[in-house]
Prior knowledge:
Blueprint: H1 14-21, E1 26-30, E2 36-37, E3 52-56, E4 60-69, E5 83-90, E6 95-100, E7 113-120, E8 126-132
Antiparallel strand pairs: 1-2, 1-3, 4-5, 4-7, 5-6, 7-8
The structure holds zinc ion.
Amino acid sequence: MQEKPVPNINGDSSEFWSGCAKHELRFQKCEDCGHIRWPASVICPICHSRNANWIISTGKGRIYTFVVYRVAYHPAFAKDIPYVVAVVELDEGPHLLTNIVDCPIEQIKCGMPVEVMWKQINADVCLPLFKPV
Ligand SMILES: [Zn+2]
């Protein structure tokens, strides 16, 4: 059986994924304008500064938008149907593409408060998923 695709960890994103392994949701914060960004990048998209550090998110936010998958477009996801793919707006600002779990699909709505939970995928990758608060 075909396996699910896993994130491609590179130099920009390795700090994020190292944080996930420790159950910390880390985002870059621009040292010049304060913008907290995702995905990680060398240059701030707001002020073009190269100075940044990393903050740890509270892991709390709201569902910005979502879709219910009722068709498996990849065979490895067939057993998960139906499942929810969502954009979660973290309290610190970043918008993260993720899954909503531990909630009946008919109860999911935009603006719903959610918090991060963790799913270990393999030795290297622990995914941040979200559930209702
Ligand atoms: Zn900036």
